[in-house]
Amino acid sequence: MKQEVNTVDSLFEFGVLQEIIPELPPFDLSHIRRMTNQVSIVQHATYSIPNYRHGYCLDDTARALLLTTLSTQAHPSCEFKDLAYTYLAYIHYMQRDCGRFRNLLSFDHQFLDEYGTEDSYGRTLWALGHFLRYTQDSELVFLAEEILHKALPHCVALKSVRAVSYTLLGLQHYHASNRSDDKILLYIKQLNYYLLDEYKGSHSPDWNWYEQILAYDNAVIPLAVLRSGILLKQESMITIGRQTAAFLEGLIFEKGYLSTIGNESWYVRGSKRSIFAQQPIEVPSTILMYKELFRLYGNSRYKQRMIQSLQWFFGKNELGIPLYDAVTKGCCDGLERFGLNLNQGAESSISFWQAYLYVCYNLED
């Protein structure tokens, strides 16, 4: 631990990170490419082999587009442009005339739902907003912006705090680009006030949170509130974001290493939190939350938490078992009571490489 504390200020020097995490691999999206065909990225895998029975989903395609954009930021070239074309094409195909999206498509190209989940909508707007802020591929901008604007009016009907948070992150990125207009800021204000209302109706001195349950991808909510507070210059929002982040930290780092809320039954207020069925999706948003806190307060403890979060993939976790597979370049689907879930699906592998890029390349997101 002494070495980690002493080197934390050099977090984004890759050589220093390799001293802290000797297993840290070079950047390699070969498993992501293996999971991707001409339609999109396949949802699930059996071990490291794409499982075509489950087809495709908008959630994973949006995650994959975001990862592709990050990858291009880290390695500026045309290397990932083909992936961006593929993922944007799927998103476009799944958008209905009203602007909302379907989510699921079978391997034989049959629609499996009429409308997708709120989360899939929010993740798509996050990916599109991020893409429009950072892409250098001007020929892809027109379609991405058209999809976003067509979908945008539906954001005010969202009820899920996570979907609202995902959408906020996308609109914050879009607002930071040179393409947005005044209505984007109005949407940001409206969505952020929704989160604050949920917080006011839920929190108490012993439960500093936005709902009566901590479920999945929890860190994304204080992250969205922190960024909104910075954008809107509202100190009260920043305070709520910081305090709820601290509440979450007290749970997921109570053992000194990252142990996320398990999805067996989550953590309902007044009950016992789930330990197992921990999933990689939790890690990149946790890293982003601490990165935002570090930017605000400059406390090196937040950098330390980022490193510890990345180490979760390499065995600093509840079971002491690494999830990253150095042979396939993929990531196992989770920590279960019986051990590892050895399947290396899209969500898990994307989450690993997102977390990797956030720490090793200090990318904006």
Walk me through the structure.
This protein is mainly alpha-helical and 365 residues long. It has one domain (2-360): Glycosyltransferase (Alpha/alpha barrel), CATH 1.50.10. The protein is built from 14 helices and 9 strands. The strands form 4 sheets. The protein has a 3-stranded antiparallel sheet with strand order 1-2-3. Strand 8 and strand 9 form a beta hairpin. Helix 4 (58-74) packs antiparallel against helix 5 (81-94). The chain is globular and about 45 Å long. It starts with a helix and ends in a 5-residue tail after the last helix. The relative contact order is 0.13. Mean pLDDT is 95; it is low at 1-10.
Any chance you could write out the topology, listing elements then pairs?
Elements: H1 2-7, H2 14-20, H3 30-35, E1 42-46, E2 49-57, H4 58-74, H5 81-94, E3 104-105, H6 118-134, H7 138-151, H8 161-176, H9 182-202, E4 213-214, H10 220-232, H11 235-252, E5 267-268, H12 282-297, H13 300-311, E6 324-325, E7 330-331, E8 334-336, E9 339-341, H14 346-360
Antiparallel strand pairs: 1-2, 2-3, 4-5, 6-7, 8-9
